[in-house]
Design brief:
This protein is α/β, with parallel strands linked by helices. It has ten helices and eleven strands. Strands 3-2-1-4 form a four-stranded parallel β-sheet. The chain is elongated, with a radius of gyration of 22 Å. The two termini are 30 Å apart. The C terminus is likely disordered.
């Protein structure tokens, strides 16, 4: 996540960590660096999720395992810090050691936001510029390899059908769903009658959505995406829409900062669908904690 601020850092294995703790050097091969040029800006209605899924798909195809990825270009200025952190946090999904953004005004803005004094901020900016580390969109750096994305071409997307690094255009979700459901069962058309404890009865079919959660990653809780999902749910409630009886809804923010941010924008009761409950403060797929 710190890669979004221009901080070079990545996770290491136990042996490397123990060596560092004991003051021993950790040797590594000089990695190839992939320059990922960004241009343009996202269209209205596209989110950090759409962007990170597109970038992940591109980097998987480019094969970046064991490499460094550095973003540059005039499009970098259009990517807010929260989105940069989301992109960097997906490094394990596309295989690079790090995916780093350059130091720029987003870095110094974050330093002010977190209480650093102006003298320290000025020092960081002056040092970065003197060392050639400050982002200059007009400069074309030299990298081992190159890849490019026009942000205006990013479209609403979802992950799947199985792996988080896979991407499906939202406009093609229905066709993809119908194509892949049969691969999960020998009887895709099977209908099962269900009666709940309160007497509600319905027929359940293969492929039915049974969990609908407003959730985020444990490491990178993107406030804009969480609040966007909350506002969408709020509008649905206002329009009289409600969940099907077989759908379990929950709010499962990845960290405490997410619900705090979201709740500050308005009472949770105004946008939570009927029957929705809060679960653990963790990413739903990772924690597997049932809503309670």
């Amino acid at each position: 996540m710190v890669n979004g601020l221009g901080v070079v850092g990545w996770g290491v294995g136990g042996i490397e960590a123990e060596a560092a703790m004991l003051g021993q050097p950790v040797s590594m091969l000089i990695p190839r660096v992939v320059g990922f040029k960004l241009k343009g800006k996202l269209n209205e209605g596209t989110t950090a999720t759409d962007l990170v899924l597109t970038i992940t798909e591109m980097l998987r195809q480019h094969k970046v395992v064991g490499k460094f990825v550095e973003f540059y270009g005039e499009g970098v200025a259009q990517v807010p810090l929260a989105n940069r952190a989301t992109i960097g946090n997906m490094s394990p999904e596309y295989g690079s050691t790090i995916a780093i953004f350059p130091i720029d005004d987003k870095t110094t803005d974050y330093m002010r936001l977190t209480g650093r004094d102006e003298q320290q901020i000025a020092l960081v900016e002056a040092y970065a510029k003197a060392q050639g580390l400050w982002h200059d969109s007009a400069h074309e750096p030299v990298y081992s390899e190159y890849i490019e994305l026009d942000l205006s071409t990013v479209v609403p997307s979802i992950a799947g059908p199985k792996r988080p690094q896979d991407r499906i255009k939202l406009s093609e979700a229905k066709e993809s769903f119908e194509e892949h459901v049969p691969s999960y069962t020998a009887d895709p058309g099977k209908v099962v009658p269900v009666t709940l404890a309160d007497g509600t009865s319905f027929d359940l079919t293969n492929g039915a959505v049974t969990v609908a959660s407003i959730t985020s990653c444990t490491n990178t809780s993107n406030p804009s995406v969480m609040i966007g999902a909350a506002l969408l749910a709020k509008k649905a409630v206002e329009k009289g829409l409600n969940r099907k009886p077989w759908v379990k809804t929950s709010l499962a923010p990845g960290r405490r900062s997410s619900p705090t941010t979201t709740i500050r924008r308005g009472s949770r009761s105004t946008w939570t669908p009927s029957g929705s409950t809060s679960s653990a403060t963790a990413a739903s797929p990772a924690s597997a904690t049932p809503a309670r």
